[in-house]
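In the laboratory, one determines a bound structure by crystallizing the protein with its ligand and collecting diffraction data. In a computational setting the workflow is compressed into a single prediction: the sequence and the ligand go in, and a structural description comes out. We illustrate the idea with 5'-deoxyadenosine.
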Amino acid sequence: MNERDSEAVAAMLRARGYRIVHDEDECDILLLNTCSIRDLAEQKAIGKAGHLAARKRRQPEFVLGLLGCMAQNRGAALLDQLPDLDLIVGTQKFHRVPGYLDNLRAARAAGVPVGATIVDVAEEADSQNSIRDHVLADRQVTAFVSIQQGCNMDCTFCIVPKTRGDERSRPMDDIVAECRTLAQNGVREITLLGQIVTSYGRRDYAHAGGTTPFVQLLERLHEIDGLARLRFTSPHPRGFKQDLIAAYGRLPKLCPCVHLPLQSGSNRILRAMNRPYSRERYLELVAALRAVRPDMTFSTDIIVGFPDESEDDFAQTRELFAAVNYDMAYIFKYSVRSGTPAATLPGQVPEGIKEERNQVLLRMLEANSRRRNHALVGTVQEVLVEGPDRKGLRYMGRTPGNRTVHFAAEPRLIGELAPVHIARATTAALYGDLVPAGVES
Ligand code: 5AD
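The predicted complex, in structure-token form:
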């Protein structure tokens, strides 16, 4: 989400004549987009910004801005720690950044003393519609498209409703047009983004014949010529109604991998988190999705050490974690976010226990990943060729289940769906060879 927001800001700046440089030491303006989801993310941003502020003292014309969730969460109070910031811009004001920078530069050029830091963290109706423009690299194959901002769920651990505001969806026609343009520019795979994508458009569009607006959107995107794959993140387990489950059976471009945030496998903790489903319902959902697509893979988010999480609660998380056999999981130690209901709950779990539980799940995940990857050795996987890999030694692409594959290829194959024979696996990646045309069985 943050990457996408940053890209949209970069696109707006570029349209105004600013040039995006890739080396931090070469820039005249540096904007840090920030995350507040856990304390560690905030501490990292403060550390980075503090380091950059030193450069500002050496080079007074250097402009330093802090954008996004942390700006929204802390506003002008950030100046206590970071007095050198020129710009503090919240999550509903990304599109104001070019204007603020123009003003700042014009004032400096005219020799007008620039006074206080610009702080803009107000709400703005329809700001979700401004995350729209892209900075496509040459021959870019995959892209993110933001369909919604904000969240109305009120999970007790989470800062997002405060940093991202109420749930607001973009018009369906705008999203379809954006995706069509991306496809015309060579993009083959789109990942739809939102805090709770399954709630997309629920206040703006009627259900059509039992079909939710989110599934209506998937159906329309599915028809776009050139698009080969559709993904989305994050849904809410509650949002998986029959229509979405069935969509996996009839929309072949919908990749058979679902990110399904679990958070905890204990019903008692789920209730305390204000997550409106049970472990039983979650397992039913997984079974229903696997019934429609037997090759379905799952990833998840888990929080360990939520207040009052007992050994028994954690044992239930562990059991469910093993039962679902996740391909990928993001495991987090509960982080107190001030202003959220869980922050003041009794029974805060000691850091050492959080760490232990974190390690237990990480070890299970690693064993799963290794087993899964090794099971693919000897098979042929359909890979969407993205381009040279990071080391530049081979090409890389991903399977429908989102596993990264490295293989030798040629530039003409970028953007193609190619069969790759998997020869070797590590925990993190697969290695293989393109199957020459005509040889595929
Ligand atoms: N502490 C730890 N993890 C959190 N998440 C959200 N809030 C917190 C918190 N206070 C995790 C959840 C969510 C993911 C994006 O971040 O698992 O799904």
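The longest strand covers residues 380-388. Keep in mind that any predicted model is a hypothesis to be tested, not a measurement.
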